[in-house]
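Hi support team,

I submitted a single chain yesterday and got back a structure, but I'm not sure I'm reading the C-alpha cell output correctly. Could someone confirm the output below corresponds to the sequence I sent? I've pasted both exactly as they appear in my results page.

Thanks,
R.
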Amino acid sequence: MLSCIENHLTDAWQWSQPRIPVIDGVSGLPDNVDTIFKGSLSDEKLIDTKHRADLTRIRDAYVTRLKGAADKASDGDHKERLIAQAGEAEDLDEWIAALSPEPERVVRKSSGGLAGGFVGKWEILGQDTIERWIAHPDGRLEVVGQKWEVAWAVLDDDTLEIRWPDKKPYKMVRDDDGWAGKTSFGAPVTFKPGDW
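Hi R., thanks for writing in. Yes, this is the structure output for that exact sequence:
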C-alpha cells in the first residue's frame, strides 16, 4: 500500500488528479489515517482552486496587455506575433505549461563499465590533447595531474554530463566503446576506455 501512495505522490503535476491519494475502502489503516487523508485532500483542492484562480487573473492581465500592445504596434509582423501570443495564452493549461520550468533531469546511478555507465579509467582525446581521467562510483571525476573539482552523471536519457563548477557541462553521447561530445567551449572531444 505504501508503494501505491508513494507512486501517487510522485506523479507529475496534473490539475485534474489530486496528489493526495484517495484511500476510501482501504482496510487495515492505522486509526485516524483516513480522516487525515480526507482532510488533506480537501485542503489540497482549496489550494489548487486558489492557485488556478490566481494564475487565471495573472493570465488575463497578460493577455489584455498583449492585445493593447498589438493595437499600438506599427510593425505588422510584430503586431501579428503579439496577437498570436495572446491567442496561445487563452488556453490556461497550455499557458501554465509554458511557464513551468523544465523537469529536472534525473540522474541514474551507474555501476561501472560501459554497460553500467562511466566508472573507470578514461583517455580524453581533444584537439591536439590527450588527458587521463578517472570516474569514481560516487560521481567524482578525477583529472589526473589536476586539482579540479569535476563531477559526472549518466542521465535518464542516456547522456553523460561532465559538470564543472564554473562553466557549462560537457554533453556526451555513447560512441562505440566510449563517449563523444563537445567541451564547454564547443570543441569536439572523445572519451575512450583507458588501459593505463
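A quick pointer for reading it: Strands lie at 107-108, 120-126, 129-135, 140-143, 150-155, 160-163, 170-175, 178-182, 188-193. Let us know if anything else looks off.

Best,
Support desk
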